[in-house]
Amino acid sequence: MEQSHTLDQETHYCQSCGMPMDNAEVLGSETNGQKSQEYCMYCYEAGEFKQPEITQAEMMDHCTGFLIKDGMAEEEARSLLAGSLPHLKRWSGQQ
């Protein structure tokens, strides 16, 4: 049986890269030092994106490598990201 990879509605995901944020250690930070509830530490620090110029396509390429490393096939990883990234806060409204 083929394993399906979908985003769980109960898990919070980084609104930039889509990474599951299932513990406080991976949360980014706001300008006041508080933990961000929307972005992970790899995307967001001190209230700013770490890669402010990255495009959605570049983010997809970047994240695909991590999903492949975790055992997902490249085609499946790209399909998951293509279906999820455009709906995240950072990318909504962009092509």
From TrEMBL:
Species assigned in the record: Paenibacillus albidus
Record domain Putative zinc ribbon: where: 13-91
Cited InterPro entries: Zn_ribbon_dom_put (IPR025868)
Superkingdom per UniProt: Bacteria
Name recorded for this polypeptide: Transcriptional regulator
